[in-house]
Amino acid sequence: MSETNTNHRGAVPVTVPHLAESLVSATVGKWMVKPGDTVRQYDVICELVTDKVTTEMPSPVEGVVTELLVAEGAEAAVGDPICLIAQSGAAHAAGIGGGMERDGTSAEQLQTAAVAQAQSVNEQSMRPRYSPAVQMLAAEHGIRLDDAPIRGTGIGGRITRKDILAYIESGAAAATRRQPQTQQPPVPAAEALQPVRTSGLHLSEEPRIPSIEVEHGDNREYFIDVTPVRNAIARAMRQSVTEIPHAWTMIEVDVTNLVNLRHKVKEEFLKREGVNITYLAFLLKAVVGAIKDYPIMNSVWAVDKIIVKRDINVSLAVGTEESVLTPVIQQADRKNVAGLAREIDELARKTRAGKLTLSDMQGGTFTVNNTGSFGSVLSYPIINYPQAANLTFESIVKRPVVIKDMIAVRSMANLCLSLDHRILDGVICGRFLQRVKENLESFDETTNLY
Known about the structure:
By secondary structure, the protein is α+β, with helices and mostly antiparallel strands. It is built from twelve helices and 21 strands. A hairpin with a 4-residue loop joins strand 15 and strand 16.
C-alpha cells in the first residue's frame, strides 16, 4: 500500500488505468467530486484526457473521497494514484479494504473494468454547462434551458445548438415558454431554420458551431479556457508542422456521374441500411483503391527507414463542438461502399455523442477529411502525425468545363493532398491523385455498392 494510505486507514488509491498500449499518462481534465463526497461504485469521479479521447473515470469502490492527489489540468502516469477513497463499512467488511473482492478480483482490475462502463454512467454530468451559442439561441426563442425537457446529445448529456434546433422544430418550445410572445407573430420554425444553400454544399446536417467557455474579461476582451483536449490538439499540430516538411498539391475531379449515382441509390439505401450514403463513402473506396496501387502513401517515417503499413486504416477527421477527432476505419480496403458508409455513420455518431473509445482512435495510416461539407473549395491540411499524407475532399460545385471543345456544366470537386516530403515526392503523389481521380470518375449508375 502506498505511503499516502497510511494516513487514511482503509482508503483505496484510485490510479490511472492502463487505457491503451501506447498511452503512458493522462491528464485530469475535471474533477466531478471533492473531498468529503460520498461515491458509489461506478460513479464518475473525474474526466481523464489523453491524446486520443476524453473518458470518464468511474470509482472502483464505494466510499468517501478523502483526498484529491492530482489537480485539474495536471498529468499523471499510468498506475499513479489520483485520489483516495475511504471505503464504506459494508464494502470494507466484504473484503474490498484489502484491495481484493471476495471473488479474487483486485481493486485495480475492477477499476480498469469500470472504465469500459464509463461512457454510460452519469450521462447528465455536463448538461448544466451551456455554450454561449446555445444560450443565445435559447434566448432568441424564449426557451428556459433549466426547465425545458431538451435531450442533450453532447458529451455527458450536454445540450448542443443542434438539440435546441431539433426542440424548436418539434413544436415543444412554444408549450414550455413561460410567457408566450404576443407582440409579434412568431416566425414558423421550419421557415426560420431553413438553411441557405448557395455553394453546392452536400450536407446531411448543419455544420457544427464551436462552443466556448468564457472565463472572465471586460468590454474590450474575454478569455477562453484552454481545455485539455485543445492542449492535446495543439501539441499534435505543433509536432506535425515542426517535424514534418509539408508539401501540398491539388487535382480537379469530375464527379457528375457520382452525383447521379448517389441521387439514384440514396433513398433505397436508407431504407435498406438505415443510414445515409454520402459522397465520402465513395471517396474512401477510391482512396483505398489508389493506396493499393501506391502503397508508399500508407507509410511513416522512422529516421533510418520508411515503414510501409500493410493494413489500410483510414482516419476520418470528424468535427465536434469542442474539437476535431480522427476515429479510424480499420482495414478499409476490405470493405465495399456500403460497408464504408455504415462505418462512417457509426463513427460520426459516436464522435459527436462523445462515445469514442481508445480502440476507435488507434491504428490510422492515412487521413481523409471531408472539408467540402463546410463549403470549402481549397484547403491545406496539416498531416495527422506520424502519417505520411492527409487528403481533403472539397465541396462539389457546378462549373462550366470544356469537353471535346464544347462547354458543358458539370459537377466538379477538388482533391487536396498534404504530403510528408521526407517520404513522398511530387511524382508519386501526382500519380496517386490521378488514380483517385480515375477511381472517382469511374463510378456511374451501374456501380454495385455491395
